[in-house]
Amino acid sequence: MTRLGYVACLSIATLLGTLSLSAQSRPPAYSAGPVENGSTLTGQVVFEGTVPRSHRFFITKDVEVCGMGYRERKDVELGDGGGLRNVVVTVVGIEEGKPWPGATRPFELSQEECRFTPHVMVIPRGRDLRVLNPDPVLHNIHAFELMGDASRTLFNFGQPPEQPVITHAIRPRRGNRIRVECDAHDFMLGWIYAADHPYTVAVDADGRFEIGDVPPGSYTIRAWHPYLGVLEQEVSIAPGGADDIVFRFAAQ
Length: 252
Prior knowledge:
Layout: H1 3-25, E1 31-32, E2 39-48, E3 55-58, H2 63-66, E4 70-73, E5 88-91, E6 96-97, E7 107-111, E8 116-117, E9 120-124, E10 128-132, E11 139-147, E12 150-159, E13 165-169, E14 177-182, E15 185-195, E16 200-202, E17 208-214, E18 217-225, E19 229-237, E20 242-250
């Protein structure tokens, strides 16, 4: 075999391997339709133990917008009753069920006073994200798809005040979790969860959640926190019933 032929075969093998990996990592297609005898899953995510110390980041630029002194950032934030904030709860692997709610509403991430708002958001995989910049300063939003211990850049663009809205599709290749930073302000941090189905929600300020119209069956329910990791529970959901569960995270 000539060197050219060897290189061509190697390139084809590499391409086929990449396509195979992509197919393996691609989530199953979700089919939306009516749900009969659906149930409601409610619950709360709580934290037990000593809350880790917060991090301080000194503000050295754009102080008239970002504030003077330093920005305090907490890895663990609690609401009432020890409720843990900034958690995403999802029903694992569900392939058929209710339609996506608010199919036409825009999903927006704003940079207000040098903070990402919301701090944690859920968006359907493949949908457009509108990134807003109401601040009169330059931001540079940089999103990383998290793949285990590795990461890759999903998008990276500067956004001066003259571009108050930029739209970008959320299409991670191999995961759901996205870390968002600002390359112009190192204390800015946010998280996006690219959901494969509508049975995925972010908890409220007290760590509570509600997932409605769940088809009867046995499921794994997963709770993900950006710093504390993942907890899972097995549940059996009866037709037309209601289930309440509690996830208990502990200090690392």
